[in-house]
Design goal:
Layout (H helix, E strand, L loop, with lengths): L19 E2 L6 H5 L15 H6 L5 H14 L7 H15 L4 E10 L5 E11 L6 E7 L12 H4 L6 H20 L5 E7 L15 H8 L10 E6 L8 E3 L1 H6 L1 H13 L6 E5 L2 E2 L3 H6 L4 E5 L18 H16 L2
Parallel strand pairs: 4-5, 4-6, 6-10, 7-8
Antiparallel strand pairs: 1-9, 2-3, 3-5
Helix pairs in contact: 3-6, 3-11, 6-11, 9-11
Length: 331
Amino acid sequence: MPAIPSSLRCLAPARRATRATLALLVLGSLTAACGGADAGGDAAAATPAAAAAAGEFDGAAALEYVRKQVAFGPRVPGTPAHRAAGDWLVAEMRARADSVVVQEWTHTTADDRKLPMRNILARFKPAEGKRVLYLAHWDSRPASDKEGDPAKAALAVPGANDGGSGVAILLGVADALKRQPPTVGVDLLFVDGEDWGSFDTNTDVLIGSRHFAENLPEPGYQPLFGVLWDMVGDENPVFEQEGFSMQRAPEVVQRVWLTAQRMGYGAIFTNRAGMAITDDHVPLQEKGLRVIDVIDLDYPWHHLNGDTADKVSAKTLGIVGAVAMAVVRGI
């Protein structure tokens, strides 16, 4: 990987290199737009909408959604676990959302494998022009390629935090929006095939988000903004401001981070500049959508056998879910 200049390292651990594009880092002036140095508590008084939203999201229920996903087995495309988990997600969304769009296709990999793929788009108020897009990937990595033991490396990643936590956030948001519909349209997108191939060569990864970017739900689809929730369940989270997000949609970063800081989560949603990470927001950004990435790659079990449900925190999911709800309610 390219070296990170020590002055710009921003406390980023070496383990982040697998999924990072390190050439793009954030200018200090953009970070200052979100409040300058780290905010360690309330940046300002929480708005009434944000305060109310904090009670809408159930972190314990979200953890159960993580456990449910892991119980299927690794959601590797082409496996029975993948099919069963996808069917479950479709059913769960049809029970909550106003409409559900399923995109199904076959992806041919670089080594000529045929993979069944499925994106799931759950829509609240689908006729509303003003929309918010939340997304997460629901697949699991087919190999634990950071394991030193070849036998362990050949096993699929359980995907509790990497995949499962973001899906749990979307499910919890869907629960809240079912109870109290939003004032704007909300799209919850579960993308497939994020973690199949090689991030080093950018081959056979981000498959679902790339497909969605080329097959948007309607002509001229342009949500007000979007947020990708990825690896958001670690018990000790720190969300830095990801590089591509700050370069291409700094106002969305500001919206989310200020909301979190006003809720008292400034130590978690830090104003430190993070690396530019190749993730599912990038294909959408390349289509002109204002989408950012909320991610904490400083996770000891990333792409390892140990990415299991016991590593995911209900408290963290509750915090992240409350911020997600406050952002929607604050529009």
